[in-house]
Fold:
Amino acid sequence: MYILIATLSFAIMNVMAKELSEMHPLQVVFLRAFGSFVFIFPYMVYRRISIVGSNPKILLARSLVGVVSLATFFIALQRIPLGSAVSIRYLGPIFGAVLAWFYLKERVSPLQWISFAIAFLGVIIIKGFDLRIDYLSLGLMLTSAFFLGMVFVLIRYLSDKEHYLTIINYFMIVCMLVGLCFAQYWRMPLAGEWPSVIGIGIFGLIGQVFMTIAFKHSEASVLAPFKYMELVYALILGYLFFGEGYTLLPMLGIILIVIGMVLNIYGKEKYSPNN
Structure:
């Protein structure tokens, strides 16, 4: 439930980021972070939650890889349709599951590997039949996906060592600092952009909080495929808000992704040491 709420929130945030396509992408990164920071930081001070944390180097690493993933995603999002952008980026959960298996020694059952392959095939089908994607945008999205996988692993590593708000706050601060480096390219939002300017931070915060809590309660290999639900939301919202149409084959890709997620749960439970 946590990860499903997180993915819906991120999908809404992506719609708002797409609405801000006329702004510099690093200004959008700053707005996304600042809108969350103004809520998180005062609460952390009030509750005396650690700002620095006990693993500052790992927290900084998680934040930096997160900034790279978010920035490259927003840049590509300004160039290609929402559904296509999200579909390519969410090759990231596969990177995340494999990295968790390699670095965190989280067990991945044979059926889970099959489920990842099915979900991956679904993404490939969606991407392969969208001719609006150029090579630069594809490269940006693949970069975003790889660094997103690293984010999954680092959050999982930190989840039982740091308060989830400490993890999020680090990310927000690094996003703002990186965004400020490009302040010379910023501009004032237009009247019609203000709802997205305000909402992007709020929905980003909701998504970040629920995603971090989810990783605190379950393994990255289980949660990673659920991130594909953001793709389903993105295809629907892209159609509703931007008129982005999709034919039968992309819909087949969505079905394969859902099948992959269900098989992942079954595979994890079936091969669990407790069974």
Notes: The chain has a mean pLDDT of 85.
